Amino acid sequence: KNAVGMTGLGLMYWKGVEVVKDLEEALKYFKHASDLGHPEATYYAGKVLSEIDSVANEDKIFTTHLAAMK
Q: What's the pLDDT score for residue 65?
């Protein structure tokens, strides 16, 4: 498992680079990378959650940004 590679794939899906833009797929890769200890992936997961639905995901967004700062 490669956190850097998973973060890269998450970025590709988030922005639609060389793949069809898919926020759910991006979030999946960012969560995997975050679980492996990649702080930027944790931050990106929060950003993607805010794009999906910032009101419904407000608590998750706050938690992921807090975790990324540690």
A: 64
